[in-house]
Every structure is written in structure tokens, then in C-alpha cells.
Design brief:
Blueprint lengths: L28 H16 L1 H4 L1 H5 L2 H19 L8 H16 L4 H25 L3 H28 L3 E4 L2 E4 L9 H18 L5 H20 L3 H17 L3 H20 L2 H12 L7 H18 L9 H9 L8 H37 L6 H23 L10 H45 L1
Antiparallel strand pairs: 1-2
């Protein structure tokens, strides 16, 4: 998947009003701000925090308004399809099929409507409204602002002890909202922020760097003191990914920095959390039998798949497991969830969906690097944002080894940003081509005039 090699990523549309109207020419700042408000409100669950907003169902009303506006805009426009469209349709189709043909129709329909349908609307909002670098910066800013608030609450909750209580034999930090109340979910939220901090920090201004640094502090506190082994493993794998992405001496520098920081950081950690990390390998826990339970789930999941090789339906595993073994816990694993719920077609559809998102971002990055304006501030932001999306996807795949994430919003968030990045790059290419044509016409006309005078 490649763009034309001559692509230039500078925003030529800002330099001249004579360019062909692009997707960004139809941008509505009101709808951009509304999308940002929706992102901020959803992640912070403002309806549960503010009684008035909950009473008027603010998130529902705002979401409905955005869906209506997005539907009108997309139906009235004749835009070329992005590379993400086909895998989205396939994955959506598989999910719809396994909702209709499920062993637990009630549960499957509830999850399909509440998670698949509603969460996928976020990708629609990005596709319809986030089409310029300014709009993308606003949307990413709204997301990071919500994460900063959650990080601040985690930091204060840890410092005061108000959000820390015993869980599985150790004091564990919990989130302040239902979405991230469980330590594992709270830790996963923090891990998901790391790619954006890591890649956006070099292109941020001083104030933005300060904000990202404060978010990093909150994320580190959350990852460590939630005591989530899921978070520990995912963070380690994500750091390994960062190292793998480094070029040349960058790998050695990162290794040297980790070799210096890691022993110092460990020396300050309470023994409970060191023991929690060690239990990943020893399977010996201070209290409870979480590891043994997960092993039992693994065995049951394999048995369910072998007895229902075509899948049990969307989120129907707990019901089937209860019927077969008298145990109701879900898979606690993204890949087992895909295999048991959606069978091989679901695994292929999901894999195709994620692969195309990664491949599309890699194509965007490669063409930015080849462009003449790679050092331009706007190009660097698009490049950094694209790299962050890929790393975010890998972070969620790492977290999925111990969590049930098939029907979560993360995939639609990554798909939405990728669609926006693709549209932005398409507009920049069109503007670059128009600018090149105008310059060629100008020089050609000038040459003709010169030749006329010489005659």
C-alpha cells in the first residue's frame, strides 16, 4: 500500500486559495468541538460524575446529534473509500452474524448494541469531522486531557490512600469511574497512554511537554500501584517495541537508560509490588488463586472451542461455560474470546482489521519520510501521531493476553484516527500536486514569453 512518491505533506491549502476544494474545506469547527466534547465526556463518564448531565443524558444526546450530522455529511459526499473501510465492513459483518446466531441471544444483542454499534460510532465521527491537522490535534488533545484527569485522580488516590485497598493480598490502586474501577482496567488505561506520550513529546511545545510529563507521572503511578500483572507484562512488551522501533545507536541509548533507571526504580518499590511482579513467573500469590483460575479458564475455553468449533456467539462464552462446567467467568483473554465467540472467521476478520490499520499507518509514515517537508512541524505531528496509533494497537494487543477486549472502543479509536490521518495525507497530496501544476504552468508560460521576445 503506497502513495505516489512525489507526495508533499506541507499544508499548501493554507498558502493559496486557488487549490481544489478538499475534504478540509468542508470542516465545521462546531462539529469538531462537539466530537472533542464527546471524547472527553465518554472517557471521563461525565454523566456519572455530574448529576445534571446524567439527568439529561448528555452523552446520549451529544452522540445522537453527532451520528445524525455524520450520516448527513457522509451521504452527501462522494469521497473515495479509505483502506480501512473493507476490513471494518468485514469485521462488523462477522460480529453481526455471530449476534444473530448465538447461544445467548440476549447477551449477544446487548453487547453488540452497547459496545459494537455505539463504540464504532467514534470511528464514524473521526471519518466525518476530523479531517485537518488542527481538528486532529483538537481530538487527540481532548483524549489526552481526559487521560490527564484520570491520571491526576489516580495520583491523588494513591497519595491519599483514598483509592487504595486490599485486593488479592496486596494494596491495589483502583479507578474513580466505573469504566476503570478495576485495577487491571485502570492499569490498561495508563499503558495505552504511553505511546502518545512517547511519540508526541518530541514534537510538543514547552507547555505541552509539561502536560505530557505530568501525564507520564500519573501513568507510572497507576501501572505500578494497581498491582496489575497484565499492566506489568504489557508495559515490558511495549518498551521492547519502542526499543525495536529505534534505529542505530538509539537502541543502545534506550538500553543504557533502562539499565540505569530500572535498578533505581526497583529499590524504591514496596516489597508487595515486587512480589506481585515475581508471581508472573512463580505463580505464587499472596492471597487468592488468580493464576490457577486463569489456567482453568484456558482449559475450559479450549474445551468450549472443540465442542463448538463454529463459535458460540458474541460474548456468549460465560453462558456456555456455565452450562458445560458450572463456572461462569469469561475468557480473560482477547484471543480466546475471539476463538470461542467468533471462531476462525472472527480471528481472521479481527486480524485483517488490525493488520490494515497498521499497514495503512506504515504507508503514511513511509511517504512522510520520503517527502521534502519531513522536518516541517505539521508533517512531524502527523508522523508522530501515526506511530503512536500503531504502538497503541500493539499495547492493546499485549494487554489482550490477559483481558477481554474484543468489543472495546480501542480498535474503533485507532481506526478513526487512521481514517483521519489518511484523509489529511490525501488532501496534502492533492494540494501538493495542484501547487506543482501551477508552478509548472507558470514556468512554461514564462519560457514562452521569453522565447517570443527573443524572436
Amino acid at each position: 500500500m503506497t502513495f505516489p512518491a512525489t507526495r508533499n505533506y506541507r499544508s499548501y491549502s493554507a498558502k493559496s486559495s486557488n487549490t481544489v476544494p478538499s475534504h478540509s474545506a468542508k470542516e465545521s469547527k462546531l462539529l469538531v468541538f462537539a466530537t472533542c466534547a464527546f471524547i472527553f465526556a465518554w472517557y471521563l463518564q461525565l454523566g456519572h460524575r455530574v448529576g445534571l448531565l446524567g439527568a439529561i443524558r448528555f452523552e446520549f444526546l451529544l452522540g445522537t446529534f453527532l451520528i445524525a450530522c455524520a450520516a448527513i455529511r457522509m451521504l452527501n459526499e462522494r469521497l473515495p473509500a479509505t483502506p480501512i473501510k473493507k476490513p471494518i465492513m468485514i469485521f462488523w459483518g462477522v460480529l453481526a452474524f455471530y449476534t444473530l446466531f448465538s447461544y445467548d441471544h440476549s447477551q449477544s444483542w446487548d453487547v453488540f448494541y452497547e459496545r459494537v454499534v455505539k463504540f464504532s460510532m467514534l470511528a464514524l465521527f473521526f471519518a466525518a469531522f476530523i479531517r485537518t491537522q488542527w481538528a486532529l490535534k483538537m481530538a487527540i488533545g481532548a483524549f489526552l486531557l481526559a487521560m490527564m484527569k484520570l491520571g491526576q485522580e489516580g495520583f491523588v488516590g494513591w497519595l491519599s490512600g483514598s483509592m487504595v485497598w486490599m485486593n488479592q493480598g496486596i494494596p491495589r490502586l483502583h479507578g474513580s469511574t466505573g469504566l476503570y474501577a478495576h485495577p487491571n482496567s485502570f492499569s490498561g488505561m495508563a499503558v495505552g497512554c504511553l505511546p502518545f506520550i512517547y511519540y508526541l513529546f518530541p514534537v510538543a511545545n514547552k507547555l505541552q511537554k509539561l502536560a505530557l510529563a505530568s501525564l507520564l507521572v500519573g501513568c507510572v503511578i497507576i501501572i505500578v500501584f494497581t498491582g496489575s500483572r497484565t499492566g506489568y507484562v504489557a508495559t515490558g512488551l511495549l518498551i521492547a517495541y519502542f526499543w525495536w522501533e529505534k534505529k542505530g545507536t538509539g537502541k543502545l541509548k534506550l538500553l543504557a537508560m533502562l539499565a540505569l533507571i530500572t535498578p533505581i526504580a526497583i529499590s524504591f518499590l514496596p516489597a508487595e509490588y515486587i512480589g506481585r511482579f515475581e508471581s508472573i513467573f512463580t505463580l505464587q500469590e499472596a492471597q487468592g488463586s488468580s493464576a490457577a483460575t486463569r489456567i482453568q479458564i484456558l482449559k475450559d475455553a479450549i474445551a468450549v472451542f472443540l465442542s463448538h468449533p463454529w463459535g458460540v456467539g458474541v460474548s456468549a462464552f460465560p453462558s456456555v461455560r456455565m452450562e458445560m462446567f458450572g463456572r461462569i467467568q469469561d475468557t480473560h483473554n482477547l484471543y480466546l474470546e475471539l476463538l470461542t465467540n467468533l471462531s476462525i472467521p472472527g480471528v481472521i476478520a479481527f486480524g485483517y482489521f488490525v493488520t490494515v490499520i497498521v499497514r495503512t499507518n506504515k504507508a503514511i509514515q513511509a511517504n512522510i519520510v520520503r517527502s521534502a517537508d519531513f522536518t516541517d512541524g505539521s508533517s512531524r505531528f502527523v508522523y508522530a501521531c501515526s506511530r503512536a496509533v500503531v504502538a497503541f494497537l500493539f499495547a492493546r494487543l499485549f494487554l489482550g493476553m490477559f483481558g477481554m477486549d474484543t468489543y472495546e472502543i480501542y480498535w474503533w479509536f485507532a481506526a478513526g484516527i487512521t481514517i483521519s490521518l489518511w484523509r489529511i495525507s490525501e488532501d496534502n497530496y492533492q494540494a501538493s500536486r495542484d501547487s506543482t501544476n501551477r508552478r509548472s504552468a507558470y514556468y512554461l508560460g514564462k519560457r514562452q514569453v521569453t522565447n517570443t521576445h527573443s524572436l
